[in-house]
Amino acid sequence: PETITIQELANRMSERGVDVIRLLMKQGAMHKITDVIDADTAQLVAEELGHAVKRVAESDVEEGLFDTPDLESDLVSRPPVVTIMGHVDHGKTSLLDAIRHANVVSGEAGGITQHIGAYQVTAPNGLPVTFIDTPGHAAFTAMRARGAKVTDIVVLVVAADDGVMPQTIEAIHHARAAKVPLIVAINKIDKPDARPERVRTELLQHEVQVESMGGETLEIEVSAKQKLNLDKLLDAISLQAEVLDLKANPTRSAEGTVIEARLDKGRGPVATVLVQRGTLDVGDLVVAGAQWGKVRALLDDQGQTRQDAGPSFPVEVLGFSGTPEAGDRVAVVESEARAREITEYRERQKRDQAAARGGSGRSSLSDMMS
Ligand code: GTP
Ligand code: MG
């Protein structure tokens, strides 16, 4: 059944919560402002207070939360968001680490070796590039299935001594399905048995035609181990980004996606969020999946606190009441009541789905016994 909190009902009517409570009390029901009442009761209350009521479907709870249009004139360039994919052991993590450390000001490098889900570096042209360390292809697929398109460019890592392998092919298919351009990083070229030419030919068999073979896919030979050609890779990413002409409106309220989240003993739920549109500010009310919170602090990938985070910026967000899930979309809402309404709705949806699954299980069992 449809429900609404008294606070939210009062907000929508621009009435005071106490007046709604008083009216309900006259009808013999005692309530607190945070209580939920059913839609029929809410309609009676609204009409009693002289408001016209338009009942909407429950799915409209999410109405206007995401993807509301921006004015063309509000759009400005934003950094590309890059995901590194490839076969097991081909050097994805090594490459991410190498790029990050090559970019970290010397002297600071010591303490910054812990795993992080997303970070930003500066390309040789001076523009920032955001990297996401997806835990694997499964997570990438899950994110896509939930409508979260987080990545603009996929860097496909192929080890020159091993060549195209099953997960290389999988990654090509993922990128194609998501309509995201590929840049090929032929890694481990320092190895004596490296055969980059073979990689190019094998890629061709999967309809990836690299530049040196007359195609359009950018390719760079790199060595994560020897930090070879990392600048060239960043250049290629910047070039590809230029072609994509990536833009976002930084002036609206923020939207983004949870890249990873965990419960920290001291700090509570910590979510790494990629901001995709708008600017996230300390103090904003946010929802992510079935969780909400008031942003208490924002931290960049170096652990420095920030006041805000604009498009394509990855930040750790502190202040969620519970731990959201990777792939959850993040939105800023205008009131705590709206945050509660949305997350309670989603919580209810989760419960209903679980109940439906449990329910069907029971009925099939009782079918069998009858
Ligand atoms: P998974 O996360 O398990 O899929 O692996 P990965 O793709 O992240 O590979 P990882 O970075 O863990 O590297 C795998 C192995 O290859 C490690 O032993 C690295 O040291 C080695 N390696 C990575 N890059 C290079 C390189 O450029 N040259 C050489 N010689 N070895 C490399
Ligand atoms: Mg790895």
Biggest sheet strand order reads 5-6-4-7-8-9
Mean pLDDT level: 87
Ends: how far apart?
30 Å
Range of helix content? 25-40%
Rough outline: elongated
Estimated share of beta-strand residues: 25-35%
Q: How many helices in DSSP terms?
A: 9
Describe the protein.
- With 370 residues, the chain is an alpha+beta fold.
- The chain is 32% helix and 25% strand.
- The protein contains 9 helices and 19 strands.
- It has helices at 6-13, 17-26, 39-48, 92-103, 137-145, 166-177, 196-204, 230-244, 336-369, and strands spanning 3-5, 36-38, 76-77, 81-86, 118-122, 128-132, 153-159, 182-187, 218-221, 247-248, 255-264, 268-277, 280-281, 285-288, 291-299, 305-306, 308-309, 314-320, 329-333.
- Strands 5-6-4-7-8-9 form a 6-stranded mixed sheet. A 6-stranded antiparallel beta barrel has the order 11-12-18-15-14-19.
- Strand 11 and strand 12 form a beta hairpin.
- The longest helix has 34 residues, at 336-369.
- The radius of gyration is 25 Å and the shape is elongated.
- Residues 105-114 and 359-370 have low confidence and may be disordered.
- Residues 92-93 line the site of magnesium ion.
